[in-house]
Design a protein that fits this description.
elongated
Length: 131
C-alpha cells in the first residue's frame, strides 16, 4: 500500500508541476483537459518511481486557467488515494458472520491443554504445586 500511496503522491507532484507551468487566456474544454490530465496521471502511475516530471500541460489544457487545472490535479490525486485505500482495505460485510463462537467442548479442550502445558512447565522447572 505504501508503494501505491507514494506513487500517487509522485504522480500528483508531476501533475502539479505541469499545472504550474502555464496560464491560459483562451477558452478550452475543461472536460477534455481533465481527461488528458487523467491520462497523463495514469501513465505516471504506471511508471511509478521511473516517471519523469511533466514539463508541459497536456495540449487539451491550453487555455485552462491555473486554478482550474490545479483543482483537476487535486481531484485526480484524491481519486487515486481513494482507490488505493479501497484496494488496501477489504470489503467486510458486518452481516456476514461466518465464524461461530466456540462450544463448551472446545473451551474445555483448550483449558485442558493449558493445564497440561502448565503442569509440564512446572515439572521441568522442578516446582511441585501445592494443593
Amino acid at each position: 500500500m505504501h508503494t501505491r500511496i507514494a506513487a500517487a503522491a509522485m504522480a500528483a507532484a508531476l501533475a502539479f508541476g505541469a499545472v504550474a507551468c502555464s496560464s491560459g487566456d483562451t477558452k478550452a474544454d475543461p472536460a477534455a483537459c481533465k481527461a488528458a490530465m487523467k491520462k497523463q496521471f495514469d501513465e505516471a502511475m504506471k511508471k511509478g518511481g521511473d516517471a519523469a516530471a511533466a514539463d508541459e500541460r497536456p495540449e487539451a489544457c491550453e487555455g485552462i486557467d491555473d486554478k482550474t487545472a490545479q483543482r483537476f490535479a487535486k481531484e485526480l490525486m484524491g481519486d487515486a488515494m481513494d482507490d488505493a485505500m479501497k484496494s488496501a482495505v477489504p470489503d467486510i460485510d458486518p452481516d456476514d458472520v461466518t465464524a461461530s463462537p466456540p462450544g463448551t467442548d472446545d473451551i474445555q479442550e483448550s483449558l485442558d491443554a493449558i493445564e497440561s502445558d502448565l503442569d509440564d512447565a512446572l515439572d521441568e522447572a522442578g516446582i511441585t504445586p501445592s494443593p
